[in-house]
Amino acid sequence: PAQPPIRVFVVEDQTKILKNQLRLFEGHPEIDIVGTALSGEAALEEVPRLMPDVLLLDLGLPRMSGIDVTREIKAVYPKMEILIFTIFDEEDKVLEAVKAGASGYMLKGSPVDKIIEAIKEVRAGGTVIQPNLARRLLRHFRVDPDAAPIPSE
Question: Does 152 fall in a domain?
């Protein structure tokens, strides 16, 4: 049997970018955009009513950041999946988002098939971090042998 479409809610503060994002998903029946919000506050009002499977969330929102929205949503709906969709590619932003409870981190401008793949992956309980970002993140966790303290005799 065909899988029901994944219910996605999009949070993006710039109307033009939001329209472009919605256009990306036209002709992709596996994705059902159930709602949109232009701010974190609006998202927090709408999400409980619509109960999407996946939140596609911009980080650079006015007033309330995408990180704050992630924390709030995960506190109340721990099973809701959050995919960060942003222009920010700094490692600390990725780490902060993951710590807040995001399941994935994609950069705007990614090809639509990659975005849809990421949505499916987080919906299935997986984690998605764009490969180039993941590589840079891993460097943070590698131990620098030169930085190791020398044990005292």
Answer: no
